[in-house]
Amino acid sequence: MVRHSFETTLILLIGLAIATLIASRSVPVAWLSNVIVLGLAALKGRWILLDFLGLRAVPAIWRGLVTAWVLGVALFAWAASVARLLI
Prior knowledge:
Elements: H1 6-26, H2 30-52, H3 60-86
Helix pairs in contact: 1-2, 2-3
């Protein structure tokens, strides 16, 4: 198993945050911008949960459940944003 240092994690999270800001400003299609921003947010959330809560060393089933939960939250947020665009 590869051990990630907290410094590496922080640099990656800062990079993902900058990518989120760029994507939210530069993509002209609203629903596509929402997909990109929420996808990056899901990546950040999963990375935070794995590294800062120590879930990288737990069995795969727990990592899978946490990942499914993060993706479920992101998909719910995306569905709400699409519903808002349609109304």
